[in-house]
Design goal:
146 residues; TerB-like; 8 helices; globular; TerB family tellurite resistance protein
Amino acid sequence: MFKDLLNKLLQPVPSALAPKDARLALTALLVRIARSDHNYADVEQDRIDRITASRYGLDLGETILLREQAEAMEAEAPDTVRFTRAIKEAVAYDDRIGVVEALWQVVLADGQRDDSENAIMRLSASLLGVSDIDSARARRRVEKTQ
């Protein structure tokens, strides 16, 4: 199942992703962020579920299935660059700011930020083509709501 999508992500010039593939890639990136501190907490999994349910209009079963598929895909994928590159190609800038905001929601879900999460956030935002200023604004918006 993931082989075709991973092959698309690994191409030197990624091809456009189908909507289902794009949401799987985004969810896998959310999982990667959550796992970056080596503490994949229930609160982070719940936050990923709420983000994907809201973003894609999924019911609970579909949401959990998407996260489980994303967890498996994230474990197989070689690096963050492939996810972000595919998302950047498939998503307009304003929507990528929304992706960065979703990433911040996951990072801040457990109430702690560590160096590994900060590093992968800087990398992800940069690879998504989102400016440091827009990423900081997204983080502040998330902090106000938590």
